[in-house]
Design goal:
InterPro entries: His_Pase_superF_clade-1 (IPR013078), His_PPase_superfam (IPR029033), PG/BPGM_mutase_AS (IPR001345), Phosphogly_mut1 (IPR005952). It catalyses: (2R)-2-phosphoglycerate = (2R)-3-phosphoglycerate. Keywords: Gluconeogenesis, Glycolysis, Isomerase. Catalyzes the interconversion of 2-phosphoglycerate and 3-phosphoglycerate. Homodimer. The protein is of the alpha/beta class. Helix content is 37%, strand content 13%. It has a six-stranded mixed β-sheet with strand order 3-2-4-1-5-6. β2, α3 and β3 form a beta-alpha-beta unit. The longest helix has 21 residues. It is globular and about 50 Å long. It starts with a strand and ends in a 12-residue tail after the last strand.
Amino acid sequence: MPTLVLVRHGQSQWNLENRFTGWVDVDLSAQGEAEADRAGALLAETGLQFDRVFTSVLTRAIRTANIALARAGQLWIPMVKDWRLNERHYGGLTGLNKAETAERHGEEQVKVWRRSYDVPPPPLAPGGEYDFARDRRYAGAPIPDTESLKTTLDRVLPYWASDIAPALAKGETLLIAAHGNSLRAIVKHLFGVPDSEIVGVEIPTGNPLLIELDAALKPVAARYLDADRAQPLPAI
């Protein structure tokens, strides 16, 4: 039976500062490191033996994977990094303080930008501090200037189909260490969550979500390893 574990990176420094992060390469906070270590301890308790880990090209996700796997005694397993597992691109909100943005634009508008399925924030102007066009991680990639959850899903799903699903179909046990919205995109796909309901799905930081799949890669069981920090899961 294929087994998949999803883990959102631990708290980042910009999570702590309440800023829109997106593709900015922010490191973990001290709390985030502790959350990643706790995730590794929980993984060790399951006895799962991973075949490989998939992650984004952002430090906070990579370090979460490394810290967790080190704690679980499996740091040696192959790691695959790909920008398509990045957090959603927050466009013109990138770097802004969330509370100050709500004061400027109104809480309802910011809620729409943050939580709606298909309404993206305003686009990021080219040439600024957070323009990723010259970042060699994205050489040849179609860099967005903003993303909704829907367009995040549009880039995650082809990667799921081409790289992750075939590994699961072979019976591999996989860990994906990524971000709130790229993981929500995977959860939406796996559980068939309607567009109107995915806005209510939250992925807690540093809490591994263990999903057992059938031969068709449909979930047959799912649970957060830290029950005290669990969020409601979509129905199977």
